[in-house]
User: Fold this.
Amino acid sequence: MSRRNLKPQRSRVFIGCEGESEQSYVAVVQRLLDPRSAVHLVARVLNGGDPLAIVESALKAIRAEKAKGREPFLRRFIFLDSDLRRLSPERDGRCLALAAKEGITLVWQIPCHEAMLLRHLEGCETRRPATTAASMESLKRAWPEYKKGMAAQELESRIDLEALRRAIRINDEIALFLREVGIR
Assistant:
């Protein structure tokens, strides 16, 4: 009787994404994890608008996974653009309370995803554009080929393991997520 080479079940980590750009970024992170990693990243593009609506959408996605009989998530993260904060202090408060209650870590991209990506690039780690428009402009200057919604394969041309390590050293808003999933 031969023994089967069974891989141990990997722990699932939920990552809620505002859009396809974040989902592609998560796919790149998954590919850069050690092949023996015990973590599987499950990225879902969420419906929403403001942070509270996005957290509520994430909870629906998490419950849908549970209803399908899937293994529970070891950790839960949501990528959010910080430029959406403070539009409604009451909803922001409810968002933070709901995320805390549900064990969801909010990863604030300051002010947006493009600015977070910019800080991964060599020589751009300390750049802090103030607005979404300025972030896109700065990223396009540093990475002329960049376009919103790039596929993971395209992101990999500039986002590699060293870029993730740069982000850990410089950017608190992404460091916790990357360390938690196994990027050192």
Remarks:
- The helical segments are 20-32, 51-67, 89-101, 113-118, 132-142, 152-155, 161-170, 172-181.
